[in-house]
Task: structure prediction
Amino acid sequence: MSYLSIKHVDKVYPNGFCAVKDFNLEVDQHDFVVIVGPSGCGKSTMLRMISGLESITEGEMILEDKKINQFSPKDRDIAMVFQNYALYPHMSVYDNIGFSLLVRKKNRRTVHEKVMNASKIVEISDDQLKRKPTQLSGGQRQRVALGRTIARDAKLFLMDEPLSNLDAKLRGDMRVEIIELWRKYNQTIIYVSHDQVEAMTMATKIVLMNNGVIEQVGAPNHVYNHPETLFAATFLGTPQINLIPGKIENGCFENEFFSISLPEYKNVTNPNVLLGIRSENVSIVKEKEDFKVEVDYVEYLGAKSIVHGMLGETTVAINTKEDVFDSKECKVKLNTSKIILFDVETSKAIRGDSNE
Ligand code: ATP
Result:
C-alpha cells in the first residue's frame, strides 16, 4: 500500500463545473511529486482536496491506511505552503512560524525549539525573527512560509506554486534549497507548478494534468522520452518537440521532403502521423543527410545554439554545438531510435513493435 493513495477522485464545484475527473495517484514515502499543467487544468483544486480545504465530490483519499476524505484540514497532519505565503501580517516572524504549533497545543518550550530549529534550516536570522512579514523581502517571506511548514513535522507537505512570486534568480536558488531540504529531511512533498522546468528539475514523479484529467504520470525523464500523448510531448521540453507531418506505410515514414525507414512501425493501421523528434536528436551533418532545413534564425546560448529552420511549412529546431551562424541551409540527420510517432486522429503516441 502506498503512503498516500488517491483513487478515482472527482471535483464538481457547486456551480456544476467539473474541475477534476477520475484522478488516480499513488504517492510513496519520500516522493517529490510535481503536479504540472497549464492554467486552469485543476492542479490547485487537487492540492486543496488533499489538504482538506476543498471537499472531495467522488472517490477516496487514503493517507497511511486512514481514509481522510472527511477529516478537517487540521486533523490531516498535512502542511501547506501557498503562492502568496499566507503569513499573518500582525504577527512577528517568530510567531508566524510557531502559531500552528501553539494551536496544536504544544508547550512553549517545544514551540521555541521547533521555531529555532526551522529558522536555522531555512536561514532566518534572529533579527528577522523579530520583524513583521512586511519588513522582509519576497524571498525572505517565502523562507518564513517554508520554515513554518518545516516546524510542523507534518506527514505530507503541499506546496502550491510557492516560488512564482519570486524573480528568476531567486526562484532558481530557492528551487535548489527546497530540493536540499527534501533530501535531508526525508519529507514527502506534493508540489504544484505550471512551470515545466520546475517539474523536470524537482520531481521524482511528474503528474501532468490537462483539462481536469491526468495525461501522464512518471519520472521526468520517462515522460520526456516516452510521452504518451501529443500534449505530454509538447508540454515538456524547450524548444518544443519537432512535429513533422507525413504518412507511415509498411514501416516507412514519408512526406514530400524525405523518407525514412522505421521498421518497428510496420503494423501501423492509420497512416496519417506526426513524426516527433526532440531538437537534441536532430544533428547537423556534412553528408548522408535525411533532409535539408532552410535556416530562419539561430539562438546562441553559449555552450550550444538552437537553429530554428523550416522544412516546407514545418518549423524544425536543432540543438547543436556546430558553428552555424552564416548558414542559410543545414543538412540534418535524425536519430531514428528517438523518433516518436503520433496518430493524427487520436493525438496519442503509436507503439512500435519493439517499444517497451
Ligand atoms: P492555475 O495554474 O491558473 O492556478 P489550476 O490548474 O490550479 O490553475 P484550478 O485553480 O484548480 O486550476 O481551477 C481549475 C478549474 O476550476 C478552473 O477552470 C477554475 O476556473 C475552476 N474553479 C476553481 N475554483 C472554482 C470554484 N470555486 N467554482 C467553480 N469553478 C472553479
The mean pLDDT is 91. Residues 238-355 form a domain with the OB fold (Dihydrolipoamide Acetyltransferase, E2P) fold (CATH 2.40.50.140).
